[in-house]
Amino acid sequence: MYRIRISAILLVAGVVAPALADEPTAEQLKFFEAKIRPVLIRECYGCHSNESGNVRGGLRLDSRELTHIGGSSGPAVVPGDLDESLLYNAIIHEDFVMPPKRKLPQNVIDDFRQWIEMGAPDPRVNEVIEIRPSISEEDIEQAKETFWAYQQPVSHPAPSVNNTDWPRTDVDRFVLAKMEENELAPADDAESYKVLRRLCFDLVGLPPTPSQIEAFADRWKSDPDKAIAYVVDRLLEMDQFGERWGRHWLDVVRYAESTGREVNQTYPHAWRYRDFVIDSMNEDKPFNQFVQQQIAGDLMPAKTDEQWAENLVATTFLAIGPKNLNEANRVQFAADLVDEQIDATTRVFLGTSVACARCHDHKFDAIPQADYYALAGVFANMTTYFGSPPSEFGTITNAQTRQSSSLLRLPVDDPNPYDKRYTAKELQDLRDEMAEKQREIATLGRGSANSSGNAANAQRTRLRLLNEMSVLSAKLGVVDEDGNPRSYCMGVQERKRPSDARLLVRGEIDQPAQSVERGFPQVLCSVQPDIDEDESGRLELARWIGSETNPLTARVMVNRIWQHLIGQGIVSSADDFGVTGQPPSHPELLDTLAVQFMQSDWSIKSIIRTITTSRVYRMSTAYDRQSHEADPDNAFVWRANPRRLDAEAIRDAMLSVSGEIDFERPRGSDVAKAGFTRVTGGVLGNPRDIARRAFESAGQSRRGMQRGSRNQIAEEVARKITGQLNQEDAKHRSVYLTIVRDEEPRSLSVFDFADASTIIGTRESSNTANQALYMMNNRFVIQQSEAFADRVIRERTSPNDRLEYAFLLAYGRPPTSSERTAAASFIRDFASTTRFRSRSKDTINALCQSLFASAEFRYLD
Q1: pLDDT digits 0-9 by tens, 201-222
Q2: Dihedral angle at the C-alpha atoms of 808, 809, 810, 812, nearest 10 degrees?
Q3: Which long-range contacts (CB under 8 A, 24 or more apart) does 24-32 make?
Q4: For residues 106 and 85, what is the distance between their CA atoms, to the nearest angstrom?
Q5: Based on the domain organization, do 467 and 508 belong to the same domain?
Q6: What are the pLDDT digits (tens) for 509-561?
Q7: Among the three residues 545, 570, 586, which one is the final residue of a domain in this structure?
Q8: Are residue 348 and residue 426 in the same domain, yes or no?
Q9: pTM of structure
Q10: Do 381 and 511 belong to one domain?
């Protein structure tokens, strides 16, 4: 059903339809019994009741709750809202036709209109069934007492070891003790340039500069421990640290700038959350505060407007997930939204998949279905903001979008940098255009689309007008009455009058069972919180997750840090600390680091410093056959793991080596520039409109151009459209590239970029032919190779110096004698080819691209 929503309707994430705001009066109930129930029984129950057997369209009209929930097309009745009530739409024969063969008398239609407008009073209540869990309280208590992840972490003294000369820190002693227990020996230290390269990529995601290489080598000669500590401290203070470690966090929280799914709608304000994460990492914000802001920032106290704005932006975490905007049923959409928020919150912070208990008791962990709905009640009592603010004309959705939302207003003057500032005339022109389209759609008239001759044309006209009006409404919605852009963000906000959620049999919205008191998973929470009736419990949830009494939060984050630095987690299943996950390889070390993390005011930088200054971190990747046979997965960390750089580090390294990198943070993103629009065919907006504007910017219409000029511009237009989201001309760091779900930039996707539609604690790391072909043929790689060559030629004069400099920039070391010989032979043979005889620079280009394409450039050894 397509319609204009004149009122500003905000999406409310309720698991089931809310009850009436006020108890119906005796007169209202009498009206229902006399005017409404008899018609429903006579005209509707035959196809839409439990007694009908095969319920058509999934719609039941024999109870109040199921009538509000509706069927496959959406809610049948929305109290007080005729436009949203599909039952009324059907009985007036607008888009649906019920009864199918005749229209009800006008007085009956008027009764239904009056009933809905008065709030749809309805005494019919489903018989409440009670679902009993298969997981008993004894099962939960046993899991609490016996499963390692549910025990409070405690600090352990470092174990004694036989090889007392090797360890430098307690981390080394824990790891070495496990090695000795399994008859393994640690690998030798890596060479100094490899350690520096490892530190630079791990901490800031960039290769070391020549000056860093020289200074580190000098310090290493006198004292390797001090050399490492010095570099670690300097790297942790760089702004690039937040960009590197912020991107790790964005993987886990499924960051993207669009909804994904069939109707891929943009999130023009998602970039604010990206910047919040980066700034938090650079500030070394206490992790527990970082957690609490993201779950309940809107409920936390703030001393200034700036702090309040930051808290609101932090809650984007709950709003930024994928969404099926094509879901017709608002109750189903809301239930799915809550489910996604539960899954993200519990897996990201607790390493536990509570969402597995949505339809039944958890199959493996001691989490009954009731615990899921206790948590669902917490999340259902908030409004999620992810769309476009309503204009003075209300909220208008386009023809494809069936679910909509507004945005949160920020208390500071910080508008989207790309939102246009309108003059009084421009603003009035937009209003006039909007009003004209409203008049056009009104002339279609109710029911006119059903006449045989005009049905198709009327429907096409309506769809076109709705799409055009949604664009106009989005433009008007982000400015004030004077045309000045307002400041908005995505996020969540508490609803008034919170209520408990109903347990849904098999997770089906039309099969509600008993209400479940709001609370947290019992197996994780020793004492359930005392949640006031007028509060959702979300602030209590945030405080509990970020507290030292929570057995999982510190462990999960410390494990993520260890994984990024060592190459695999102490718990290899980073997002699953449950029964089906892997047990820790070094449990005492994990717990000791978790306690240290909490005692250091939850400092991420402190844990990074502890790990990177250990002897474990500087081990070489040298292969040992006997050790490999005893521990093929290197679970006991007897050597460093060879690691391929991730997608962002490869791209950023090319930009850094070429000298082309732009370290200025871009404000906003391409999605912020495009605004609230749909992603179609990999393009932000309508490809036809983009092409038309590109031709018009050339100074004339496409039809009026000369053939040669037209073809040239057409090629440029095609390149802009097809490569719009690849962003090959961008020079800023990869964390600032626009990430649209299902349309990730080629430079990232080819190297196993994280799927932005799911929680990714551990990325895949493949080595494929596509990657080699990309490094050989991609336009961005070729451009950076040429810039790399220009830098080498510009900064060094002799052939030998240029060769040495190219290797130093790319690998962090000078070439070996065999590499010098091979490179000289390559340059000689390449220069002798007929094609390149007149272009000596091309030989340097080819050498630089071969360095980029090599395995050593892409791997940490």
Answers
A1: 999 999 999 999 999 999 999 9
A2: 50
A3: 24/119, 24/121, 24/122, 24/123, 25/121, 28/118, 28/119, 28/121, 29/121, 29/123, 31/114, 31/115, 31/118, 31/121, 32/115, 32/121, 32/122, 32/123
A4: 17
A5: no
A6: 888 888 999 999 999 988 888 899 899 999 999 999 999 999 999 999 999 99
A7: 545
A8: no
A9: 0.86
A10: yes
